[in-house]
Write the structure tokens for this entry.
Amino acid sequence: MPRWFNTAGPCRPEHHYMLPATRRLPEVRRLIEQEGYFVVHAPRQVGKTTALLSLAQELTSEGRYAAVLVSMEVGAAFPGDIGAAEAAILDDWRETAAQLPPELRLPPFSEAPPGRRVGAALAAWSRASPRPLVVFLDEIDSLRDEVLVSVLRQLRSGHSNRPQNFPASLALIGLRDVRDYKVTSDDRESLGTASPFNIKVRSLTLRDFTAEEVSELYQQHTSETGQRFEADALTRAFELTQGQPWLVNALAKVAVEELVTDTTQPIRRADIERAKVLLIERQETHLDSLAERLREPRIRAILEPMLAGTIPGALPPDDVRFAVDLGLIRMNEAGAFEVANPIYREVVVRELSFPSRAALPPLQPTWLRPDGRLDPKGLCDAFIAFWRQHGEPLLATAPYHEVAPHLVLMAFLHRVVNGGGSIEREYAIGRGRMDLCVRYKQDTLALEIKVWRDKEADPLAEGLSQLDRYLAGLNLDSGWLVIFDRRSGVGALAERTRSEQATTPSGRAVTIIRA
């Protein structure tokens, strides 16, 4: 039976292309041998469950340990009832443990009072097992409040009884480190300390794939089917995903199962680009779950200045850690935060501009020449007419006020390229701008967006210099500089919107749009 690229649930080597599951967690075996209790945390869909499930199977098959990965997620349905949560968790554990050899399964045990049942089950299991017991508790941070604290305290209480009367080694697996587990129903406060689990010896993070690992994973498909990925396709896949495992698999899955089904034909860079567009348009479960977070105040506080290119105010460290733990942002080589990869960057803007796109009136494509190519002058005239007539009411549709003009402009541009092109965006905290690259068939238009705010100088000179560098990087001779005037008391939007011509310091032609 042929294998395939997996985008749902843990990877299984008999069914899925996959890399050695524990390669990205080299320290885990040593911690287990030292009877350590530890934490493995990483964003969703990076392979935590796959890695620890695979390791548990390896440890058990080697005959030295009884190792198992069990889930805590079913307990999340009972946030205020410790006893009910424990009963659901232990019932789920019994089903999972049934996959082990009979002598290693969860044994019957004496009923314990609520708040002691998880610890009692682990103690009974450890005593009955002919081998040291190793337990990986998956989705631990799905628990909340008293249930979570109760489980952590039971683990801490039993820790000193290992290995004969409690698991020899145990790991908490989740999205966040233990100090950031949520303990209040409004999801706004965290433990702030590891004290309910101060027995941990390490907190480990599962990294994304390297460029070499992306190539290695894709090579498995080539080895089994003969269909190769061209070098440019491999490079582009890593650029777009930055090694995020779900995205790496999803891009390849769309490319080989939908776009190039003839295995005698290679996967080219253009196929990866098309697969990216399809993923973003469909916004499947993983991408949709990220999009749902964008309107949370703590995420908005980070993303809004990032989109605007400004410096944010003081950000609570917990909120920053939360965004990083989601996998939504990362720190780049320059030490600044940015959206984690180009696909997420596109998802963020598409989601935020959706209300504006949905509110757009019908637009006639006056920006196209008779041969179907893009007419930059016609596009400029069309945008100015659109902005004068519709800009003011559409600004109110944008969910992030500080970047409302950016989002409305991008909604307009999405209508322009609909079905025939794409928009690439660059933005990050402190850049002072947003850069856009609009590709429509064989035409490319580069734009830079600046904002003129109260008590600031006209950003024209800075914008021309910045746009000059952006155009040079794209090997273009012309582009647009869009300056949104957000100063108070500058007159009606329709009256101040106009275009003019200028040149960059190196002589490139620029259309300036003041709006």
About this structure: The chain has 17 helices and 13 strands. The chain has a mean pLDDT of 90. Residues 376-395 form the longest helix (20 residues).
